[in-house]
Amino acid sequence: IKKLIYTHVVIWLLLLAQMCVGHLKLLPHDQVAMPYQWEYPYLLSILPSLLGLLSFPRNNISYLVLSMISTGLFSVAPLIYGAMEMFPMAQQLYRHGKAYRFIFGFSAVSVMYLVVVVAAQVHGWQLYYSKKLLDSWFTSTQEKKKK
């Protein structure tokens, strides 16, 4: 789970860098496009990762549960919204070959769909393994209470 959290932090930092470069105009907009609307709420996805990391030192079940719930709210939900938000641009690129936003010469919608796919996999595996870990912690807690 820690490796998945670190992978998520890398994705998060890349999106944050794109947002900073776009808003601070460090590079021209034809090189790095302005961020899509879904990227702003996705910035909150760092909170579930921090809660997940805080749950490990003492096997804190409540932090892990909060991490799992907030992963759905702050990570998965913006990704779903982002896939829907970018769909018309992807359709236009596929049908007509026209792209209006670019990230270092690549179509921004293509790059961002790649980010969405990778992030969805990371969050999906993170939720899966968090559930397995939660079950394990809960079982060990119940066994301690019986003794």
From TrEMBL:
A Pfam family recorded for this sequence: Jagunal
Source organism superkingdom: Eukaryota
An example Gene Ontology CC term for this record: endoplasmic reticulum membrane
Compartment annotation: Endoplasmic reticulum membrane
InterPro entries: Jagunal
Annotated membrane topology: Multi-pass membrane protein
Membrane-crossing residue ranges in chain numbering: 6-28, 63-81, 102-122
GO biological process: endoplasmic reticulum organization; granulocyte colony-stimulating factor signaling pathway; vesicle-mediated transport
Keywords of this entry: Endoplasmic reticulum, Membrane, Transmembrane, Transmembrane helix
Similarity comment: Belongs to the jagunal family.
Protein name (record): Protein jagunal homolog 1
Species: Neodrepanis coruscans
